[in-house]
Design a protein that fits this description.
Elements (H helix, E strand, L loop, with lengths): L1 H19 L13 E7 L4 H17 L3 E8 L4 H13 L4 E10 L1 H7 L3 E4 L4 E3 L13 H17 L4 H6 L18 E3 H6 L5 E2 L3 H8 L6 E3 L4 H9 L5 H17 L5 H19 L5 H19 L5 H17 L3 H26 L4 H5 L24 E4 L6 E6 L2 E7 L9 E8 L2 E6 L14
Parallel strand pairs: 1-2, 1-8, 2-3, 3-4, 3-5, 4-7, 11-13
Antiparallel strand pairs: 5-6, 9-10, 9-12, 10-11, 12-13
Membrane topology: Multi-pass membrane protein
GO molecular function: peptidase activity
Main location: membrane
Length: about 450
């Protein structure tokens, strides 16, 4: 019986030690929470703001570890640099758990972490920078990104040559890559190159690596506002919002009343500014410029002028767009391209479909003809040579009695007082020109003709 009890106690001791023993490279959390943060889809500024919040909350509660669950094909270089800087500055150990892909900007972010865990079938690498249209970036940008990849690897004791080989096609690493290739490693290859710590089959193995239980995990999720900010700050969404916004406002100008296109246009701009405000980019100056631009455009619509208010309004809107943006040059270029595209589209619409709505208030489109009962003023050449008297002073326009009829006349020269004998010297359309003449014998100069 004693041997049985001793055996049971020995088994329990060994089992307890085996369960409690930390995994290789693991951090002893001491029962403190571990923050589990998703890093998925495109890397952009909205994601950087979300991760910043997660790290702040982890700091506030004294978390012992942060796990970034990664599955991304990359994204914005500026956002990746910001996230990498945040990871390096963290006093809390950071583990990147690569569930799917860690490509391009994702690879850079992972290299900054204390630990990298990968699932079977996951991959890391292929970090060559590219433009939005898919072309390889210029050599200056490639060199800049390569140096940052090297620095990220060196900061955690990883091979900087492997990191550089993910960016530079011309780099040759014997036994690893040939010239013209980019390094992209599977989970097994990454562990072999000491880029990743180990291969894990799922979350439970991550828990064992960190020596924590499921109850220690605090899962951080995107709030609705952060989801909106991530969507709006995407470089693929910004040009679309500008096109929709400008097109909606332009269509509203050319169609009767204020309706659906105007609402959509203003909504697109509102979404752009509100999303960038949620992401922390738009400040008070942005909304001051936006309000000024809208006021100036309204003045341009309702106050006759030479377009100065409209020009200032568009400049103010462009300034608001730039101050709200994380990448100001990209947003300004997108806005100008959208403005040009909208102008061309509206010119074609007016050219082939005609202008309607508010535009008709600026352009005279009605016509008067005989069929609708309009008759222009008839010529009266028979008035030439007839005499009369001015009823009012002519300065030079006024009224005179000619042929027994009151007529609107103008003097040929200077001022003619009332009651002065005049003679018609020219009739040009509805314009009757007169000049002074000497009164006929026996005519009273001061008595107008009636």
């Amino acid at each position: 019986m004693k041997r049985l009890v001793s055996g049971v106690l020995l088994f329990l001791s060994v089992f307890t030690f085996a369960v409690a023993a930390p995994g290789v490279g693991a951090e002893d959390t001491g029962g403190r929470p571990v923050y589990w943060v998703p890093l998925e889809q495109n890397v952009e500024r909205g994601l950087a703001r979300f991760l910043d919040r997660a790290f702040r909350e982890a700091d506030q509660v004294g978390a012992k570890a942060v796990v970034l669950k990664m599955d991304t094909l990359g994204g914005d270089v500026g956002a990746a640099l910001e996230i990498g800087k945040r990871i390096r500055a963290s006093q809390i150990p950071v583990t990147v758990y690569i569930k799917g892909e860690a490509i391009s900007a994702g690879a850079y972010i992972a290299l900054n972490a204390d630990h990298i865990l990968m699932t079977p079938g996951s991959a890391i690498g292929a970090a060559e920078p590219r433009t939005l249209d898919g072309r390889t970036a210029d050599p200056k940008t490639v060199a800049f990104w390569e140096s940052n990849m090297r620095a990220a690897a060196e900061s955690q004791g990883r091979d900087p040559e492997i990191a550089a080989g993910m960016v530079d096609r011309n780099l040759v690493i014997e036994g690893v890559k040939e010239k013209g290739e980019l390094i992209s490693l599977s989970a097994r290859q990454a562990v072999k190159q000491d880029l990743a710590d180990r291969i894990v089959s799922g979350e439970k193995e991550v828990y064992r690596f960190l020596n924590v239980s499921a109850s220690d995990i605090v899962r951080v999720e995107l709030t609705p506002s952060e989801r909106l900010a991530r969507f709006v700050t995407s470089p693929y969404v910004i040009p679309i919002l500008f096109m929709i916004g400008l097109a909606g406002i332009a269509i509203e100008v050319f169609t009767p009343g204020f309706g659906f296109p105007g609402v959509i246009g203003l909504g697109a701009f509102g979404l752009y500014f509100f999303g960038h405000y949620l992401a922390g980019f738009a400040g008070a100056e942005t909304f001051v410029l936006l309000a000024a631009g809208l006021i100036l455009l309204i003045i341009e619509i309702f106050v006759p002028g030479f377009g100065i208010f409209g020009i200032l309004g568009l400049l103010s809107l462009a300034a608001a767009v730039v101050t709200a943006a994380s990448d100001r040059m990209f947003s300004l270029a997108s806005f100008l391209i959208a403005m040009g595209g909208t102008a061309v589209g509206m010119w074609l619409a007016v050219r082939y479909f005609g202008a309607r709505g508010f535009w008709n208030r600026l352009v005279l489109s009605s016509e008067q003809n005989n069929q609708t009962g309009y008759v222009s003023r008839t010529q009266q050449p028979e008035l030439v040579g007839k005499r009369g008297k001015s009823l009012t002073p002519l300065r030079p326009a006024g009224a005179a009695i000619v042929g027994g009829v009151r007529r609107d006349v103008v003097s040929e020269g200077g001022f003619i007082p009332a009651g002065t004998p005049v003679e018609v010297v020219e009739v040009r359309g509805g314009r009757v020109v007169v000049r002074t003449v000497e009164p006929a014998p026996g005519e009273n100069r001061d008595q107008p003709e009636v």
